[in-house]
Amino acid sequence: LADVRTPEDWTRQRPELRRQLAFMLGLDPLPEPPPAPPVVAGVEERPEYRIEKLVFSCLPGMHMTGNLYLPRAVRGPAPCILYLCGHRTHPRGAKTQYQDRVLWYPAHGFVCLVLDSLNNGEVPGWHHGLQNLNRWDWLSLGYTPAGLEIWNAMRALDYLETRPEVDARRIGATGISGGGVMTMLLAALDERIQAAAPSCSTYTVGDQAARNLLRWQCDCTFYPNVYRLDYPAVAALVAPRPLLITAGRQDPIFPPSGAREVYRQAKRIFELCGARDSVRLVESNAGHTDPPLFLRESRQWMCRRLHPD
Questions:
Q1: Which of 184, 176, 196, 188 is nearest to 284 (CA)?
Q2: Which of 37, 80, 211, 253 is the most exposed place for a label (fewest CB within 10 A)?
Q3: What is the pLDDT of residues 111-135, one digit of tens each?
Q4: Burial track 128-138 (b if 16+ CB lie within 10 A, e otherwise)
Q5: For residue 61, is it left (φ>0), alpha (ψ between -120 and 50) or beta?
Q6: By the 8 A CB rule, do 231 and 202 touch?
Q7: Could you give the dihedral angle defined by the CA atoms of residues 215, 221, 226 and 231, in that order, rounded to the nearest 10 degrees?
Q8: Assessment of whether the complete model's pTM goes beyond 0.85
Q9: What is the distance of C-alpha 190 from the center of its chain?
Q10: Per-residue pLDDT tens for 188-244?
Q11: Rounded CA separation 171/191 (Å)
């Protein structure tokens, strides 16, 4: 980002940086979406909301699952949160591990769609090919599971635009760990995300390498970086839309030094875009988790930007 000194510089460089990021994720050009619409596989009724269990067709032979929470008290199109799960494997699906983050939203007037992550919930597939399966051919193939997860999220956005309960002009994304990485990448590539709040997931490549942390990371953290595009540029691509970064000072795999450098570089781009107040970094003494401070900050961030009522 050192070459970006004026708003005109950013206007000129931004489309190419976004194209490079999409290419490295296998999303340039975008795949053809399957014609099959999502299927509602079941419904759960609760006092404050209704849950629809969704199954999406994303690629031929590939499906993705999600739970759509519809608040009962809302009349007319409502703001929506797309919650991208991290990588906590559980027999009942990764979605069950994040309900404490999710349930606040439908109880406060938001529609909320929770997506399972690849290989950690109901979606089969390999996720840790480089980390522990010796799939070094993934590098020469240009493959990263991050591309598949971002494509799944884009398909979910397509679906949300068809739902009368959702105000498609007020969709935000959030998630922790791997879900936070996906939040940042999705917001960088898809401007339908109007506010983003990635948690415990922000880094620079140099900081990760210097601290010998790469071996602990899921494959989706890093894309095949043929364009040498570091994470501050990814965060800058979110500008001028609101971006809240939360980082734990005791986080062993995403230490705050990386988040601070991303924030420092991205903030300058936000300022060039006239959006100084649209980017923020919040730290706590927590580790790799969402303490009450992070949950409160991200919820307030979404309310101020998407749901001021």
A1: 176
A2: 37
A3: 999 998 888 778 877 888 888 899 9
A4: ebbbeeeeeeb
A5: left
A6: yes
A7: -110
A8: yes
A9: 11
A10: 999 999 999 999 999 999 999 999 998 889 898 989 999 999 999 999 999 999 999
A11: 10
Total length of the chain: 309
Residue 74 in tokens: 């809302």
- Residue in the block written with tokens 């993705």: 64
